[in-house]
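User
Please review the sequence:
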Amino acid sequence: MKTLSIVMIVRNEEKVLGRCLESIKNLVDEIIVVDTGSKDTTKEIATSFGAKIYDYEWNDSFSDARNYALEQATSDWNLVLDSDEYLSNESADEIHNFINNNNNTIGRVKRIDKFKDKAGDSFAQTFISRLFPRNLRYKGKIHEQIDSSLPRVKLSVEVQHDGYYNQSRSERNIPLLLHEIKVAPQEAYYHYQIAKEYRGLEKHELSYHHLKQAYSYIDKTTSYYPNTIVDYIYAGMASGELDEILQVINDENNRLSDFADYQFASALYYLEIIMKNTNKYVHLLPEIEICYQKCLQIGETDKYDSVMGTGSFSALHNLGVFYEVTGQTTKAIECYKKAIEYDYKPSLQRLQNY
């Protein structure tokens, strides 16, 4: 039987560290915690779970810190989690079967990110490489990636993440990302990541600028390519760059036809550009219904990193609104009722008007 370590870097995480370690304590053979300067009870909490604790002087490089932590681990395989994450499903058997029957593969877990939007609490899913053999290491100062060409395999291991729900880490992240962009100005990944930081700060023009750069440099085979396009559409709407985005949508329609988030964003975009210049773009009105119908045909899948609801309740609700404002009341009510089956409260509020 192969052994497994959980490997973490932490700093002032007393509010969430216990939750994380509780979720994995019976799954791993060893807990490695590298502390980069905590002033609270983080170390005491880690000690209570039997962790091996090491101090590390922070040098503005996540990969350096993670690699130092990995060097302390003694197991055959490593599982990497952040303290604001925790395992949320019964996955011990799958994890152990995976590490005992694989040597040259990296496991990707499904992380479910909690965030706030106009509708309230929302969730997005993304698959991230977190389970790998002991010899692998990271690269990149921030949004670090495993430096390996080994194939990635999606696992049915779910990790909840709420670290960005009530706080932003852009003050820390943006300077690091700007440094990476200065070093490698044509690296699309860092433009993509910094655009997300600027979006969180509602600096939409800066977000759009960097997504435009990412789009010009990106390799269309990369895993984050579809999400770059979706973010680019939203940034174009937020910054008023609607005409340019229309060409992007036209260029990407075939490639992303099976991505619900893309169809959802396109529907919102068509509405936005029609409202801006009705006479010029009213011919696009049928595309709104078509896009939402495609969302529902695609449904909720694990093919892409996506926002939950774009293939179900959110698409149903927005399609209902479309039908409502275009005078198709019966269809609107039908959509709202279907969305309510997912306990989607905005649809319940709409339905109360009838």
